Amino acid sequence: MDVSIEKKLQDLWKIQQIDSKLDNVRALMGELPMEVADLEDEIVGLETRVSHIAEEIKGIEEEISAKKITIKDFQKQIDKYDDQLNNIKNSREFEAITKEKEIAGLEILSAEKKIRELGKMLDVKVEIQTATKDGLESRKKDLDYKKAELTEIEKENEEELTRLGAESEKALSTLEKRLARAYSRIRANMRNGVSVAPIIRGSCGGCFSKIPPQRQSDIRAHFRIIDCEHCGRILVDQSVTGIDAAVAEKEPRTTRRKMKLTAKAED
Ligand SMILES: [Zn+2]
Q1: Distance 236 CA to ligand 1 centre (A)
Q2: Residue 100 C-alpha to ligand 1 middle, in angstroms?
Q3: 211 C-alpha to center of ligand 1: Å?
Q4: What is the 196 CA–ligand 1 centroid distance (Å)?
């Protein structure tokens, strides 16, 4: 018994929808691990930064300690000069020791100034360190969320892939062999896996080329199966797809799931 063209188009469209869902799930399965990997990279980067800042802080602290020792040393010298000034023999000696004492005093002032500068630098670094550590912690929490979510979604997706795969195979087997082969061949050649395209605003829903009005009428007439002159996809009209001519391609459940993942991670 000969199957009507309309029925064939409906079957083709049905198979296409199953396969597009399959493609969406597969695409999502590829994207989610990448999101996790990106986050892991970011965490490694932040950890490196935290340890780098810690080293800088240690360096500044060591510099401050060294300056404090310098101050103590010069203070000791000043004490020594004070002792010497108590036992002064002549004015030349007095001037020489006073001069040395002045120099030591200036050294102390300079070291104190440097310590204040280093102290300010230290405050800034500590602030940056705290912020970076906070950022790191929150990214780690995000990662935990995403990993848990990924495991859950992967399990769901595996189940869905199996289900859709079986559904697609079954639907394809009901088509006449020649048509099934044509469908599979076109699908394999298309980067987006779309073999059967709806007419959208007078254009092919696959390659977006304009379809001449006469060809559009022929497609609507269901007299024969008509492909796009530009991309070779099988074209179906609104009576087959049920898609309003003005509505563009829809994105089914995969988008919703991805949004769910993102929303949870950002909580
Ligand atoms: Zn086309």
Answers
A1: 11
A2: 92
A3: 8
A4: 9
Secondary structure (DSSP) of 162-180: HHHHHHHHHHHHHS-HHHH
What is the tens place of the pLDDT at every residue in 80-106?
A: 999 999 988 899 999 999 999 999 999
**181 CA distance to ligand 1 centroid (A)?**
19
Cβ density class 175-210: b for 16+ within 10 Å, e for less: beeebbebbeebbeebeebbbbbbbbeebbbbbeee
Domain ranges of the chain: 5-266
User: How far apart are the two ends of the chain, measured CA to CA in Å?
Assistant: 59
With cut-offs at 50, 70 and 90, classify the pLDDT of residue 244.
low
The CA 219 to ligand 1 mean position distance, Å, reads 13
Here the tokens at position 119 are: 């102290």
> Which position has the token pair 């060809």?
215
Distance 186 CA to ligand 1 centre (A): 11
Cα 131 to ligand 1 centroid, rounded to whole Å: 53
Evaluated on CA atoms 242, 246, 251, 252, the torsion sign reads negative
Fold of 5-266: Helix Hairpins (1.10.287)
- Asked if pLDDT for residue 250 goes beyond 50, the answer is no
